[in-house]
Request: fold
Amino acid sequence: MNISIHTAHNVAINYTPAGVLERVLATIIDFAFLFGLFFIGGMALSIMNKFTSMNLALIIFVILLSFYHLVCEYAFNGRSLGKYTMRLQVVKLNGKKLTFWDCMLRWIFRLIDISISSGVVALVSIVVSKRSQRLGDMSAGTTVIRHERSVTLKQMSQFDAPEEYEVVFQQAALLSDKDINIIKDVLREVNKNRNYGLLAPLAKKIKEVTGIETNMIPLDFVKTILKDYTHLANGYD
Reply:
């Protein structure tokens, strides 16, 4: 099952929703990180006890840790340490940028979804929901997606085009995020092993999906499609 998210220009991009196990593992990693902070913080507080009230310092420390998910998801675009490790990210279903209020709603409902119910409410709602959402996601209009692989900055910018770039094939918007990943994989294989025989069938398949008719040579056509798609997905006119 894929989740279709529309950008500001109504370009549908398909994402794979994060599975229950992946979200549980991300939560465990976050808990392990927080436990480590508690341990280190406890040692620091023991040293600070000579200079300040232990109780006051402990209260401040607990409050800071309580806001961990709220701060991380807002500051790091929907990711905590656990989500980053598991290649997960909180995203808006309408394609807009995650706001502080979105993160706040998810954080408030975390008390019901995870803290009070020990994760039972979150588990049930994620399994039952069509978009793999817990209550916090439903209230904020978000969900958690899984990125198939890490992408380097070089790979991300390889097919970027300047804002003044003029889209050649508007039909590139008909391709899914999965289609684009396949196209990039084929191009990487072509560049690595000089296997140019892969380009003709790839170009033919793109034309079948999009309905594009062109005599452009396969390599130029495929690269243009990627630039067009990236430009449209980034929300440029």
